[in-house]
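Appendix B, record 7
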Amino acid sequence: MMKQVNNTIAITGASGFIGRRLVAELRREGGHAIRVLSRDRQRDLREDRFGQGVEVCEGDLGDPGSLKSFLEPGCIVVHLAYLRNADAETNLACTANLLAACRDAGISRLVHCSTAAVVGRNPSDLVDENTPCMPVDEYGMTKLQIERDIVAAARGRFDSVILRPTAVLGADGEQLKRLAADISGGTRWKNYLKSCLFGRRRMNLVPVENVVAAIVFLIDHPVQPNGAIFLVSNDDDPKNNFADVEEFLMDALGVKRYRLPRLPLPLILLKWLLILLGRNLVNPRCDFAPDKLRSAGFQSPVSLGEALSRYVAWYRATQSGEKGRPS
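Structure tokens (predicted):
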């Protein structure tokens, strides 16, 4: 149910890891008026956080009244914001405030960036958009409830589409920070034992560039029905596993590979360890199928190998910068 649209894209969470890159990509492409929600407009303008041509609107998802000037009839909303340090009730309330503002403004479409983690502990080795979700932690359960609230609120009022990225990889992101640090300066025998345990585990990495490209694709793509869900992943790459990613990083960072061959431990041991640690995703064989988004016409602009090379270049630059700082 696509309403008459204008060319304004209103973005929540624009200062976040994905949001900054989305704003930059939309500015590069042109053709849209870009509006972002900010809790400190003067600071963002002073720091030129979003660049020229981006309208910065002061507001807070926790304050319904502040959202009235953020949205306008026919605009497209991209919802990226999630309050990591807040509880489920607060995040659900913020989403409810945004949805009420979307309804009152008469927007045309809402594109929501969720997470593949909502699948939780479903035992399937291959997950698609129809796989039942079984999250067990607060984050996964809250994200799934946000999806459901969006679909329910949008019905009969505006289009909604949900994107579920897997583990998002990019410069200054959280993915691979620990692994790169362990490779660079960790204890060698501990790294080896971890490699034996995790070696065949699927990593489910997806370049942030592909996530941004998928959001841009879904902004204008004629999606039916309301609440359509799309996974974005690079899990069709056979090297998207711990052992291959670790070896790539070791080679790129100039660290010698292990002298002893890995002794792959049964993956069931890793699964039970992840369960004991209370992890949400515990199936080490799990892949997330990118077929639905691809069949809609989407093409990933960046391969996993390219993304890993960019990540290593960023990591080496940051490490050199830190070493060069005065103590």
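Remarks on this record: The radius of gyration is 21 Å. The chain has two domains: 8-169+205-232, 177-203+236-283+302-324.
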